[in-house]
Amino acid sequence: MQRDWIERAVLLTVNWAKEEHPFYRDLYGHLDLEKGLDHFKNVPIISKDDLQQVPLEKRSILEKGRYLTNTGGSSGHPLVFYLDSKAFAREWAHMHYIWERLGYRTTDLKLVFRGKNLGDRPLFYNPVHNEYVVNAYCPYERIAETLWRKMRKNRIRFLHGYPSAIYDFIKYCMEHRSDIIEELRKSLKGILYASEYPAPIYRDPVEACLGVKSISWYGHSEFSILAYEVEKYLYAPLHTYGYAEAVPSEEGHRLVCTGYYNHVCPFIRYDTGDLIEPVEQDEILRTFRISAGRTGDFITDEEGKRISMTALIFGRHHPVFDRVKFLQIAQINPGEAVIILTRQECSDLNKDDALALMDLSNVGIRFDIKIVDQPFRTKAGKVILKVPYDQLCFEQVPDSIGE
Fold first, then answer.
1. What percent of the chain clears pLDDT 70, i.e. is strictly above it?
2. I need a labelling partner for 266 at 20 to 30 A (CA). Which of 22, 291, 312, 346 fits?
3. Per-residue model confidence (pLDDT) at position 397
4. Phi then psi dihedrals of residue 230, to 5 deg
């Protein structure tokens, strides 16, 4: 039974850590860890903040081939840790299982949008994964022309990468290179959305344009949990990868995970920092929805209430979506926020028009509007929904919101 397999994997992991790993040996003390999953909830939950208080070498052990890495740090607080030498092999085995749901085979050629800087090259062929990697810092005109020459000889079967980047390029092609769109419609089998939340504003137009299905998955840099879409925005954890739990809290349910394999820097009952809504759950979490993207994807009103950005932006009808390429929000103070709109090419959209085209009613937040030509991107090239206000580089930051 699946439950028996998971129970054995969890207990082996936690008991090994108690006996062999100095961080967990101190943390668990005299806990009785010999019982099953029903008692696993008594094991302490740890967070990124907890681990950041402990020096790296005190929460890791030596192992040949260990790999130093860190979380993305979009929250401004990256966590440094080690992965074991087999982490990426396990990752790819599970990723191929997910992609096969759309008919993917290793012989299928992919076009990948992952924020890569390739210098002067518009595209780079990576034979390891049979993919053309797009230069995120190259003009679309050059990318499109190079791609056109390549794709007439080699059929592109999948698009893969950041939803915002795929959307932006396809939108460009719709407006300027209909020949590429027509060729993709003939050859594509699906779209593999990675790293970002596949927001409907990006996902739906691309699927409608290209006439294919897409799939996304939930994972994190710590390599302790992986879940894939069984239908749009409904995720099923892969318990062969790591054990996933929905732990009740005052805010809802927190997604907590336990990785089985990384003995260098184990993550056991690790709070991902994300809120979820369990959909199917018996003794094991079967499916869930992400309540508000990452839990950082909320803003706070003037009374301190959290407002889901997913609900605010995608749960309401905003006609401004027809006039902009990207929409992002930055929180200034509780009850004050800036909406950042990236205008479409040749658009004459102004602040007053934008406000009239958005439904911001019944929200205890004063909004300012900033209209820009390029969206805020992370160092990795992602277009994130919630932008750190202190990282914005507006020419003139408003002194008074809403003026």
1. 93
2. 291
3. 36
4. -95, -20
